[in-house]
C-alpha cells in the first residue's frame, strides 16, 4: 500500500474532527493508502511535522485553514526531498479550497483530490518565507490575524467582516515605500500593498486570469485613504475590475524588492497569518519545485498547462 500522512489542525473550523478523520482513513484505504494521522498542538507544529516525515511518504494531506497549509508548505521547503501535498479546507474563509475547486464537505473533497491530477505550482517567497497565495501590508491586511479565534469559532466569516468594519472606521495611515522591478526603482506613499498568486482573497474574487504556474505573481498597491474614496473604489472594482480603479496600481512580475522607510504599524499578513519578520526590506520572488495533487474541476482555470 501507499503511505499517506494526514496533518490535521484540530482548532480549525467548526467541525468535530474525529468522525471526519475516521471517514477519511476509510476513504484513503479504498484508494490503497495506509494513513498515519498527526494533530498539530501549537502554531508552527505542522511545519515541524512535515520536516520530520520520512521520504517514503507518497502523499501529505493538510486538513485545516489556509495558515495550516502555509505551515505544511514551509516545512516541505525545508526538506531535501519534497513530498507530494494536498489540502482539504476546514478553516473559516478557505480561499485556497475555493481556488482549487473544493466545497464544504471534506469527504467529498478528499475523493475529488484522490481522483485528481498532480500539478506543479508556483510558490512565492518573501525573504525566504513561503506563501501560497497572498501577502499583504497596510490597511485591512491585518484583519485576518487580528480577528480573535473565539469570534471566528462563534461567527465564522462574519467575524472578519466585523473586524474589517472596525478597520474601515479607523484612520488610514500611509507608509513610504520604494520598490524595485527589473532594476527600475519607484517611490511613493501607500495605504496597502498586496502580492498575490491567485485570483481570490478574503472570500472575494479580486483578480482575473491568474495562473498558478506562469512564473509570475500579481501586485496591487493603493494610496487611497479617505472613507468616501474607499467606498468609491469598491464601486469601481465591481463595475470595471481591479485594473480600472482610481488610486489602485496593478502589475504582474516575477521579481519585486520592497523597502520601507519606517517600520509599519502592523506586520505583513501571509496566507491569513502574521509574518514575524520585522525587516524594512523584503525580497519577493517565485520558486518552483512544489507538486500538489489537485481535483480536476478548476485546473483549466488556474493552470497554463
From TrEMBL:
Q: Which domain of life is it from?
A: Bacteria
Zinc in keyword set: no
- Cofactor(s) needed: Mg(2+)
User: Which GO CC annotations does the UniProt entry carry?
Assistant: plasma membrane
Any one GO biological process: phospholipid biosynthetic process
User: One Pfam annotation, family name?
Assistant: DAGK_cat
Where in the numbering of this chain does the DAGKc domain appear?
A: 1-130
Q: Which Gene Ontology MF annotations are present?
A: ATP binding; ATP-dependent diacylglycerol kinase activity; metal ion binding
- What keywords tag this UniProt record? Kinase, Lipid biosynthesis, Lipid metabolism, Magnesium, Metal-binding, Phospholipid biosynthesis, Phospholipid metabolism, Transferase
Note the InterPro entries from the entry: ATP-NAD_kinase_N, Diacylglycerol/lipid_kinase, Diacylglycerol_kinase_cat_dom, Lipid_Phosphate_FormReg, NAD/diacylglycerol_kinase_sf
What the record says about family reads: Belongs to the diacylglycerol/lipid kinase family.
Which protein, by its recorded name, is this?
YegS/Rv2252/BmrU family lipid kinase
Q: Which organism is it from?
A: Candidatus Coprosoma intestinipullorum
Q: What is the lineage of its organism?
A: Bacteria, Bacillati, Bacillota, Bacillota incertae sedis, Candidatus Coprosoma
